[in-house]
Amino acid sequence: MSEEKKKKKESISEQATKALESQYIKDGNTLYRVSGVTVKEKRLTNFFAAFDQDGIKIYEFTSEKELIFHRSIDWSDWKDVKIDHFALKSIFSFRSDDNQEEFIVSDGSGKEVEELIRKHTKIHVINQSRKWYQKILGFRSGSKWKMITASLIYLVIIFGIIGAFTGNDEEKASGEPKQEVENEEAKPVNKTVDKKEEAKKAKEKKAAAEKKKAAEKKKKDEEKAAAEKKKKEKAKKKKENRPIDEKLKEDNKNIVSTNLDDDGNLKIEFDGDDSFSVNTMVSNQSMNALEAMKIAFGDKKVNKVTAVVTGTMTDTKGNESKEEVISITYNRDTFEELNYDNFHKMAYGEEWRIYNESDYYYFHVGVYYDLKDKIKDNLAYGANKVS
Question: Which of 36, 273, 338, 365 supports an S-S bond with 343, CB 3.0-4.6 Å?
């Protein structure tokens, strides 16, 4: 038989070991060793255990030379292990406070596995003490009938071996084709079939991606909300810090223009052309002026407020011009003497009160002429009040 043919005839154990070594190299993990193991419910199937830093992973090695993940035993789950070494196998009983799991090494490497556990884990190792012959199959239980039966079987085996060496070439040859068939079935395919593990990894990867995406969205939303809040606060602060004349004009749609001079004299202009009549203009714009003055005197820089109402007037020749038709002036001291809330209620419907309490007021003769008698009769100073 040529060297090339001998090289091809690797044992199932060697093939499984190479397949597991390739898988661990591919995954970037460290493999301590590989041992043949027995799984009770599948005794006729080839199982191998891969030992690494996390624990033991058990795989089935199929006739198609595929590795199928069966189960795992994690070092971290166990407190101690009781080891019972026999002639051909070793039984490892892993124990914790509330659980126990048995693991059988069937290829004679039990001592090496024990040493590995002692070296690489914190699991407490307990060795089952036995006499040398109690480790032999048939003598382990101590039952007499089993020991007699085992002895007879071993004698038959011994005589069979002796017969083989004395010229039973036919029996020896009968074993070679079996090995040949076994090796012919071994195809060098290192394909790992572990659908359960792959599905788990895919699920974990998806969950991690979704978590990352959610975290990024949350961060983005928080940053956007913070920027929006900062923008609003800045706008609010800017709005609060506006000069009083600018604030009045921007916030009151009835005001046409405002002007505050360096001496604290504020002039507010209202447009009277939109009013239905002279009396409506007087009623509405008088209240608008009172309310604007309340806001204006809230600024300590304002000493005097003059509210004027402008309107389009036509002279005797038919010419039109925009003129001040009403003017009301309050100094700060005069305005602060008013109980504003009560006075505001009193002035509603009796707007002449606003003029009577002012420091100065003026009505254009054309406007004054068209006022209804109720207003005229209650204006204490007629068309003009000069302080």
Answer: 338
